[in-house]
Write a structure and sequence with these properties.
The structure is a single chain. The chain folds into three domains: about 190 residues; about 100 residues, PAS domain (Beta-Lactamase, 2-Layer Sandwich), CATH 3.30.450.20; about 160 residues, Alpha-Beta Plaits (2-Layer Sandwich), CATH 3.30.70.270. It is built from 17 helices and 14 strands. It is elongated, with a radius of gyration of 48 Å. Its EC number is 2.7.7.65.
């Protein structure tokens, strides 16, 4: 067997914008892993693959964000109570904070799991959690009122946390900081106190927070994904190197184990003297199931036709390999087995050898023989059918070219056979046909061919027979059938025959001419009153 090909090495080192697919980590092992402008994989399916396989790293961060973020946000309810008092605004904010707490606890539970159940759903939930916190913060700012300086510190902290700590699992998350800044600016403009000095400082700080935060988020996302791809590539390369090392270190003992464990019969033979060096358990079960072989074993002892082995070796010398050749072997018991041979030249222990794989096809060949027999045999009577008859006629014609006498043909028609079917039914008619075939067959010589051409019409081929002898055979058949009681389920049935004999005492050039003469003779027999034999000889 040919050794399987090793894993392909990955392409050149990854750039900052694209990488090759790590084998065994995606459905298409040859596709490219491309990073987008935001540091995420451009293909959504590839991004899901990354999140699933890196969940042991991403999951804990999601858990911490959900747990600590929601708890920290809930703790601010004490400030709400101090600032707002027990008003309906306070209770509304408290309800919203508990809602965010529930959301965060769900994220914490998902992040704690060993595998992510649904990447898209978790990514959407994380984005929604982030947006909800920022939206509630803006509502708190509106409820508190006051100076913009105080609230800006918290807003900047939220922006940096969103960019630097929350893992970007959806592209939309990259716009959360900018959207939040814009909405916060609207709140400041409409509801908070500020001065010109604050405006200049806020533009610088919030602009820096978004630009730097964007770069940090993209860099972190890109670094995580490129590092993951590199780890996958290194893992595959390490596995390939380990596999190559393992294959290089395989010893003859390992090869022998593989040889012995193969389910296909395998035999290793030295070409010089046909000595069998090794054969596995499957070959032993095929050739020597009783374990009778002792001492040196030679492959030539197992060919039914030793000359076939010489032909195969000659082909092997010319082609180095021979495949799908049917060979008939004999076992130690002397039983013939049909096998399909595949042979290849190999070097073993410094010598030219042949390794042969065998597939037993005895059952298949037996079935082929049965099918061939069915193709040439009448299924009811077991006699030759029309195809089988003409095949044997061709052989007889070929022999007649060497003989001084051509074959004779006797056409037979059972008289009034339709009446039997009409009176007794077709099952009885079939019984009569079967018995008739057996009776006539018993009257013929070895080498004579008896065939059913169809219906109640039969034919006898008499090779190497003169016309006078053929007429005697036909009369003997007619008289015996006329006197024979055919026992059926409906009782005794009597038959008579009309026979036409055709033959020549010289070699025959065309069997069609002989059959035509026999047909004419049989027609005269019917016209002459049936139950008679007519001879037509050119």
């Amino acid at each position: 067997m040919e050794p399987s090909a090793g894993l392909e090495r990955l392409a050149a080192p990854l750039s900052m914008t694209e990488a090759k697919t790590p084998p065994q980590t995606a459905a298409d092992t040859r596709a490219e892993w491309r990073l987008g402008w935001d540091g995420l994989f451009a293909d959504a399916a590839q991004e899901e693959t990354f999140v699933r396989e890196e969940w042991t790293v991403i999951g804990p961060r999601v858990r911490q964000i959900g747990l600590y973020g929601s708890l920290a946000f809930l703790s601010a309810t004490f400030t709400d109570l101090t600032v707002l008092g027990a008003t309906w605004v306070y209770w509304s904010l408290l309800t919203a904070r508990f809602g965010i707490l529930a959301w965060g606890l769900w994220l914490a539970r998902v992040g704690k799991a060993r595998t992510v159940p649904n990447v898209r759903r978790v990514a959407t939930a994380l984005l929604g959690f982030e947006l909800s916190i920022m939206a509630l913060f803006l509502l708190v700012v509106l409820a508190y009122g006051g100076s913009a300086d105080y609230h800006s510190i918290t807003a900047l902290a939220l922006i940096f946390a969103g960019y630097a700590y929350v893992p970007v699992l959806r592209r939309e998350a990259m716009w959360v900081g900018g959207l939040f800044t814009l909405l916060f600016a609207v709140v400041i403009w409409t509801s908070l106190h500020y001065d010109a000095k604050f405006i200049s400082i806020a533009v610088v700080l919030f602009g820096f927070a978004n630009i730097a935060g964007w770069q940090i988020a993209v860099s972190l996302s890109r670094s995580m994904r490129l590092a993951w791809v590199d780890r996958q590539r290194l893992r595959v390369e390490a596995e390939a190197a380990q596999q190559a090392k393992h294959m290089a270190e395989q010893s003859e003992e390992n090869l022998q184990r593989l040889f012995d464990a193969a389910p296909m019969p395998l035999v290793l033979v030295r070409m010089a003297d046909a000595r069998v060096l090794r054969f596995n358990a499957a070959a032993k079960a095929l050739i020597d199931p009783d374990g009778a072989l002792q001492g040196d074993i030679y492959s030539t002892d197992f060919y039914e036709n030793p000359a076939q082995r010489d032909q195969l070796i000659a082909r092997l010398q010319a082609e180095d390999a021979v495949g799908q050749v049917e060979v008939r072997l004999k076992t130690v018991r002397g039983t013939a087995v049909d096998v399909l041979f595949s042979m290849r030249k190999v070097r073993f222990a410094g010598e030219d050898c042949v390794i042969t794989g065998m597939v037993e096809i005895s059952a298949q060949k037996s079935l082929e023989r049965q099918l061939r027999a069915l193709a040439f045999t009448d299924p009811l009577t077991g006699l030759q059918n029309r195809r089988g008859f003409f095949t044997l006629v061709e052989r007889a014609m070929a022999q007649s070219a060497l003989d001084s006498v051509g074959p004779c043909v006797v056409l037979i028609d059972i008289d009034h056979f339709k009446r039997i079917n009409d009176r007794y039914g077709h099952p009885v008619g079939d019984e009569v046909l079967v018995q008739f075939g057996q009776v006539v067959l018993a009257l013929l010589r070895d080498g004579d061919v008896f065939a059913r051409l169809g219906g109640e019409e039969f034919c006898i081929l008499l090779p190497h027979t003169r016309a006078a002898q053929a007429l005697e055979v036909a009369e003997r058949v007619r008289e015996f059938v006329a006197a024979h009681p055919f026992q059926t389920m409906a009782g005794v049935v009597r038959l008579s025959l009309s026979l036409g004999v055709a033959g020549c005492d010289a070699p025959v050039q065309s069997i069609d001419a002989v059959l035509s003469m026999a047909d004419q003779a049989m027609y005269r027999a019917k016209q002459g009153g049936r139950n008679r034999t007519e001879l037509h000889c050119a």
